[in-house]
Amino acid sequence: MFCALALLLCAAPSGQAQPRPDPIIDIAKGRADMATAIRKARAELPRFFKRFAAPDPSESYFLVKYDLVPGEIDEFIWAQVVTHTDGVTTARLVNNPRAPGYRRGQEVRIPDAAVIDWSYVKNERVEGAATTRALLNMVSPGEAAALRKSHGWD
Known about the structure:
By secondary structure, this protein is of the alpha+beta class.
């Protein structure tokens, strides 16, 4: 069994650039490193939503990652947070989904329990993104270097 993880390859720095199309990486389900990353991200989710509710002027582009269509082949995808109320996030898809019936920019509602990761940009550096950090060991060295650079992690 595999799951598809869309990578966020660009941060929207202070200029609020639109995200570029993202590659999708298929990984085997049950990877311990990914499970650890998801646990870490979920544990920090309340702090993330607190930042979203009262961001510092240097913070922007708040995203959550969740499984768009849970099932045998999962599709984990990033969505930009619009609102968060009573444990539900309204967000817009920032990746081009594989799943039929969905499109980039589509508004979705995501219960907190479905969120597996989060990120935001602070001073042109991506904060959070635990699953993306875990993916650095699953891609080629060139792809990992490009991710580190685009996320401000180098």
